[in-house]
Amino acid sequence: MSTKESFCLAVFALLLVSSFGVKDPELKQCKHQCKVQQQFDEKQREACVRRCEEYSRQKQEREHGGGGRGSYGEEDQYWNRESPIERLRECVKGCETQRGQQRERCQSSCQKEYEKERERYEGNERQEEEGEEKQQHEENPYVFKDHHFVTGPQTQHGRVRILQKFTDRSKKLFRGIENYRLAIYEADPLTFVVPNHWDAEALVFVAKGKGTVSLVTKDRRESFNIKEGDILRIKAGTTAYLINSDQNERLVLANLMQPVSTPGNFEAFYGAGGENPESFYRVFSNEILEATFNVRRDRIEKLFGQQRQGAILKVSREQIQGMSHHEEGGIWPFGGGESKGTFNIYEQHPTHANQFGQLYEVDSSHLRSLRDLDVAVTLTNITSGAMTALYYNSRATKICVVKDGAGFYEMACPHMMSLQSQTHHEGSSQREQPGSRRESSDTPRYQKISSRLKLGTVVVVPAGHPFVAVASNNQNLQLMCFLVHANDNEKHALAGKRNVINKLEREAKELAFGVPEREVDQVFRSQEEEFFFKGPRQQHRGFSDM
Predict the structure, then answer these.
(1) Do 164 and 75 share a structural domain?
(2) Does 362 share its domain with 483?
(3) 440 located within any domain
(4) At what angle do helices 84-95 and 100-139 cross, to 10 degrees?
């Protein structure tokens, strides 16, 4: 191989190698999950491992600036179009059949076409994102993005972001979850979150990182190791504080809050503190504080006047070590002990798993305290280019956060048309138009609700609403969901091996669809997978011709 040819191949190395060889905990975990799936045969395990490696490679490409984001297509073509980076891979792969200068010219042509296509692609993507943002702001109350969060306590070392009340978007649509709030805690490496308590029940999911959480109730203190995938309940009124003990990785927690005092609103109360965060002790009269603590006023004023650095503080390794010697309850946070107060979602066998994705579920049968909260937790990992089945929940409303990756979702909604009609025509009597919906008792009409999904997007899926999520062609899509009103909830598949239509009698099928049973079965029995399927672009290459 010539020096020039080696140089050209090196230019494309990031695009062609199957692995970067970098130690990747996520890749290790992904491969492990592939190997432990009892329902996989050897070929399926190998295919699963290959997908893990491909996803890890693409993720590292994106981190080094080599990967393009998926785009959001036109109204009738929502799956991601092939990105320039994917076209470049295909082009370069085609050059491998040539040799010498012909290969070099082929690769150079690929690179030039890539540069032009990337510029056009990124311009189109920006326009689509701007148009989608405007449309969602006006028409899609089920999707919440960055601007729907408000910032709570914040320092240069971390912050708390609180999603607006669901009923602020629509009182009618979200009345069933009006007493729930979502908060995202972010703490930089080697930080300490000052002790505080909430007037709310909290269900915590560790979305990223690891650390230690300490809980104080009455005369008892318990400390728990936490790591990615852990679920922890913190009861209302419990004083809690947090350490991010990792030197490199940010700690991110998703908290579902259920206020116990003022419906739909919760507050953090800081006793330990000073001016920032302000200690609630400071508002009481000096006479009360002197009697309460049995010390002079000047000592009280000095104590509660020192802290001005905020609720999230940078700490040293020595300070972290000093907080690791627990005298009662608790666990040594650096000794590798298992967390007895948490439940890790990754340590469960997935409810559904194949080469297209995995679904992990934790409910009250796994964690007793979830029954008191009437909440369950799920984690869905959809392989790049794949999708979930169409399905709905019988009584649970899903509050989903995009934990990683990108994609899109679609949902059938019977409410939007009536809401839009009320918005446009409120206060005026309108002449009924042919084909319009006259009364709420008429046959329902559905509207497709859809949105692009990316890291941090929040989506609400009400009970009974058919829903599907699709991963982009170059990234896996991970959805972490809180299911509210989860007790006795059932998940009903509308496609795949065990879909509800397949369970109907012949007469019911023929009456409902107006065609012979065999025509119904040709559609509803063609999908051989159960919960995760090939995505729209993949399906175009393999439709059943029954």
Answers:
(1) no
(2) yes
(3) no
(4) 160
C-alpha 229/C-alpha 209 separation (Å) is 9
* pLDDT of amino acid 8: 41
pTM for the model stands at: 0.71
Task: Give the C-alpha distances (Å, rounded to integers) separating 199 from 155, 194, 261, 263, 435.
Answer: 23, 16, 6, 11, 50
**Same structural domain, 339 and 356:** no
Residue 489: the pLDDT is 95
Note whether 39 and 119 are same-domain residues.
Answer: yes
For residue 523, the enclosing domain spans: 348-416+446-539
Query: Can you tell me the distance from the alpha carbon of 448 to that of 410, in angstroms, rounded to the nearest whole number?
Result: 7
Q: In the predicted model, is pLDDT for residue 308 greater than 60? A: yes
Task: Give the Cα separation of 407 and 384 in Å (integer).
Answer: 9
**Residue at which a domain ends, from 89, 117, 139:** 139
pLDDT reading at 526 higher than 70 = yes
Instruction: Please indicate, yes or no, whether residues 164 and 106 belong to a single structural domain of this protein.
Output: no
Task: Name the token pair of 93.
Answer: 């792969």
Q: Are 211 and 245 in contact (CB under 8 A)?
A: yes
Residues 6+ apart with CB under 8 A from 278: 270
Give the model's confidence band at 428: pLDDT under 50 very low, under 70 low, under 90 confident, else very high: very low
Does 436 map to a domain? no
For residue 162, the one-letter residue type is I
Structural domain total, the chain: 3
Are residues 367 and 250 both part of a single domain?
Answer: no
Contact 427, 104 (CB under 8 A): no
CA end-to-end span of the chain = 50
Mean pLDDT of 406-425: 75
